[in-house]
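Q: Hi! First time doing this. I have a protein sequence and I read that you can turn it into a structure. Is that right? Here it is:
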Amino acid sequence: MTSPTSSQATAPDAAARRNDLQLWLSSLQGYDLLPDTLQSASSDASFRRFYRVQTSTGGSLIAVDAPPATENSAGYIKVAALLKSMNLTVPDVLASDLEQGFLLVTDLGQHTYAQILNPDTAHKLYLDALSSLVLMQTQSQPDVLPEYDRAFLSRELGIFTEWYIGRHLGKTLDEKQQATLNKVFDQILASALAQPQVFVHRDYHSRNLMWMDKGNPGIVDFQDAVYGPITYDAVSLLRDAYIQWDEELVLDWAIRYWEMARKAGLPLSNDVDAFYRDFEWMGLQRHLKILGIFTRLAHRDGKTQYLDDIPTVMDYIRRTTNRYKELVPLWRLIEELEGSATQVGYTF
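A: Yes, that's right. Below is the predicted 3D structure, encoded as structure tokens:
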């Protein structure tokens, strides 16, 4: 879900990039590639494109077009090796050309969690994903990945202010509104930074997890991994911007994660209510960022399909802000800015 930060980012010529990628694949030796079989496999919120290429032995590999002006392929290679060393299922990087922004990686299959999650499959799939998450977190070390520090988290909240409030709603905050927003932001940041710090994927959700017969899940889109708050990936998974579950199910899965993590020795609070508060507040930071990213994708990059997912994200925000008195002013502000402020009082 991460995407280029420049407000002037422009998409490269897709046809020219595809042609250059095909030429690069033709130059590779030892993989039995059939470059003429190149077919689109997927794309994402960034400018990356993924292609499936067949091999003469009957298999397939994934060719990645990651324009170097906007995409972090060096980070992808580094984190792939890190996660592989932890016995997590990630693509093997077979070949790379960082100057052109091309990668050849192993194919983890065609089925993402997003495609196969349903009430019958969800429990097993989420427990597998949470187990892999705990495995990654227990092997965390400082000074390996960039820190998800206050400045970083604050910049993400700024995407909400700039793109959702400023561009999408067309609003400029007055002094009182800005003070309200700043106060809530400070509390969200304080909660995040007080949590134990671990490796964080940053986009651990249904579109970035692949269903696997063995080693489930396959994990992709990890190049922006950081060292940060322990609840971040769990809430990314369970309060997914693209798939929403009943709160009772989310609570059950979150508690199962808490139990697994504590059993594995991770330093989560002994108080499940304190853990769940951290979980919810971390989710709020993420969902505010996502509102900014989705509207930026629509207004800057022309990817208006992401606007369809805003109601789900806004529902998460509404529910969380109305559960904590410190956060209620944020929801009131959002309603005010959207011209739908309700005239009812809140009691605590």
